[in-house]
Amino acid sequence: MTMANGRTPKDSLATEKLLRAAETLFAQHGIEKASLRDITALAGVNVASVNYHFGSKDVLVEAVFANLAERVNDARSRALDELCASARERGDVASVEEIVQVFLHPYLAPNEQTHGELLAQFLLLNRMSPSPITTKIMEQHFDPMARKFISALGDALPGTTLKTLYWRYNFMATTVFMSVTDKARDSRVARLSGGIADPANRKELEAELIAYVAAAMRGPAPVAKQRPQRQRQRQRQRQT
Questions:
Q1: Pair 43, 98 in one domain
Q2: CA separation, residue 175 to residues 26, 47, 102, 179, 212 (Å)
Q3: Which position among 63, 84, 90, 156 has the lowest Cβ density within 10 Å, counted as fewest Cβ atoms?
């Protein structure tokens, strides 16, 4: 039987197997270290299947990114909606800490941590080497979610301008995915602290990130730099 898109059920099954196998191995070993041979072996298909179904490993990586981004961000958006709805029922708004915790959940929750860390790897890869496809993935699966979080943060911080909220959301996102991918025992923070601060302790990392990001969100707005008094006097003299 051939489906409307010209693919057979067997083709679709092989595609799903490759996506699942690639996601598992990317999460375990990193995107660069997971070989096509290992991916196809885990999927139970031959190596040529990657070229047949995706064309190249790069396209397979992008497909895994899109699949993971859609799943994770749909769940995160629903969690934020539920948080805000619960707060409204109490006649309140969600706190900054609660909003940040929902944002962090896919990266640090024990049952989602592996895939959350993989998503952070994809985000770093997109920052360093964006492609038209990864840019489209960001626009489809990350931008709508980002606007939801910015709106919720605006409710929690009514004195903060929308422009500042956009900046601070971007800083939060960058801080989070840089932090969650630095998990090795020899990471920089572990080395600097002599092991006192250990990013492998995910509960501690989550608590520190929430405190740090919430404090940054509540920080004062930037103040325009004033010119020194003597410079202002010279400016007035030129105007008279």
A1: no
A2: 22, 38, 15, 6, 10
A3: 90
